[in-house]
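Lay summary. Proteins are chains of building blocks that fold into shapes, and those shapes determine what they do. In this project we predict the shape from the chain. Here is one chain we studied, written as its sequence of building blocks.
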Amino acid sequence: MNAEEKSRYQTRSRLLIGLCLVISLLSLALSAFMIYSLFRVRQTAVEGLDMAIGVLDSLSQEGFQYEYPFNQEIPISAEIPIRQEFVFPVAGTFPINTTIEVPINAGMLGTFVVEVPIDTSVEVRTQVPIQLDESFQIDTTVPVSMTVPIDIEPGDPEMEKLLNGVREWLERIRDSI
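And here is the predicted shape, written in a compact code that computers can read:
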């Protein structure tokens, strides 16, 4: 290798080393920027989780009120048996005003029909037992439209248990980030 080739080789080597150095510095800068961005995302996530934990704490201290709208059609299909005994008292005076035709057998003279007028009243005092043993089939749809109020007081044991579980879960996520 002569001096001119050696000089060209050194120049090319220096350019290649310079280019590698620039690429390395760019890569380092890009990596530093990505690490900085990830730390910012982590910090934003931690702040969001802290806010969620704060909301849970205030919810457990203030309680919870909500009105749930319930609008449904409920199908009903049933056979309803009714077995009951009723006793109806009947009391009163019932007038009878009629004419009755009474046949009279007169032997050899034949049969005569005599009209007998009846004009009277009959007093009745009794109890009439009625037994009811029936089944009724019902097939219908009942529309139900209502608002169900939900009011959970502060310190409700079940709500506290649920909120504490969610709070612990959020804290584990925050600590693992």
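What the prediction tells us: The longest strand covers residues 64-105.
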